[in-house]
Amino acid sequence: MSKILVTGGAGYIGSHTVVELIDVGFEVVIVDNFSNSTPDSIKGIEKITGVLPKLYEADCSDVLRMRQLFIDEKDIEGIIHFAALKAVGESVEKPLDYYRNNLLSTINMMQMLREFNGRYMVFSSSCTVYGQPDVLPVTEQTPRKPAMSPYGNTKRVGEDIIQDTVNASEGIYAIALRYFNPIGAHPSAEIGELPLGKPDNLVPFITQTAAGIREKLQIFGDDYNTPDGTAIRDYFHVVDLARAHVLALKRMMEGKSRNSYEVFNVGAGRGITVLEIVKAFEKVTGVKLNYEIVGRRAGDIEKVWADTSLAQSELGWKAQNTLEEALLTAWNWEKRIRIIKG
Q1: 282 to each of 75, 83, 210, 228, 276, how far by Cα in Å?
Q2: Catalytic residues
Q3: 3-state SS assignment for residue 25
Q4: What's the farthest any 2 CA atoms get from each other in the chain?
């Protein structure tokens, strides 16, 4: 049984990926500092899988603590690296926090692979590395553009750190998955997206508004060059994204990588406006949302969606769940956590 370290494994995408890893037989070790997550997600993982993964509460940007973790945990074969600050707007206000946390943690993970004979890295990257593309949909060959936020730049530089390290290292392989917009929750409603404080992502803001936690949903901008004036993104189910990490890991472990460093887009492969998401949520849940249009948000781009044909042909991956299924699981999760807290 291969041992995999999942950084940020108590977080939204991390916890769903841990479930998928356990389900196919990996031994999982989680490291998380709970800066934007809670230990409750670990309990949720155990309820879903019947397995309580080993947990280290630590900061991945602390190299001495990470070295001790690797000394304590023998034979970590690979890392799935989620641990990062991820709020676009906040990164504009606090750039140094983002560079310090996101880049140091990535440097440390690559250093640990080299020091302790690890072999595989799956990196949580982002479509933000494409900026506002000249041509849509985005393929893996679409040129990366200067980032529109410090967060986006940490993903771009993070990719470069990993690629350069792989090129200089014998026997280390890496895959960067460029996420588009994961939404939803595990169908069990045991784990889901639970931002601490004010949500930065659209769907938690929608569900919190629907639950009465937020008075009003703010839609940032209605003057974009899109069918209804609101921004376009590529929304897809988080469980589908979690599966992509397992497939990426298996690709490297089974010797199927064409190069020691590879990149894949992961998304639904279609663009949906913010207002279309709002209407779809209202339709699938029967809940009317109170929303208002406000000005554009710093760091946001107008429209982006993925061409996922490479992931389909090489990884055997494509999004399987519908938008409606994703939104319904997000709402079921929101209702469940409000009952628990209430």
Answers
A1: 48, 33, 9, 17, 10
A2: 151
A3: coil
A4: 56
Q: Provide the CATH number for the domain around residue 60.
A: 3.40.50.720
**274 and 258 belong to one structural domain:** no
191 located within any domain: no
- Cα(145)–Cα(14) distance, integer angstroms: 27
Strand duo 232-233 + 272-273: pairing:
antiparallel
Kindly state the percentage of the chain with pLDDT values over 70: 99
pTM value is 0.96
DSSP assignment, residue 143?
A: P
* Spatial separation of the C-alpha atoms in residues 20 and 18, rounded to whole Å: 5
| 8 Å CB contact between 249 and 118 | no
**pLDDT tens track for 238-271:** 999 999 999 999 999 999 999 999 999 999 999 9
Query: Based on the domain organization, do 96 and 212 belong to the same domain?
Result: no
Residues 227 and 103 in one domain: no
Buried (b) or exposed (e) across 4-20, using 16+ Cβ within 10 A?
A: bbbbbbbbbbbbbbbbb
Q: Where are the alpha helices (DSSP H) in the chain?
A: 12-23, 40-49, 63-72, 88-93, 95-98, 104-115, 150-167, 202-210, 238-253, 274-285, 309-310, 323-341
Torsion angle of the four alpha carbons 128, 38, 175, 232, in this order, in degrees rounded to the nearest 10? -30
- Both structure tokens of 311: 């992931």
Tokens for 263, please give them: 């990149």
Give me the DSSP letters along 167-202: HTSTT-EEEEEEE-EEE---TTSSS----SSS--SH
The partner residues of 263 in beta bridges, in order of sequence, read: 176
pLDDT in tens, 109-152: 999 999 999 999 999 999 999 988 999 999 999 999 988 889 99
**Domain assignment of residue 195, yes or no:** no
Q: Are residues 209 and 332 in the same domain?
A: yes
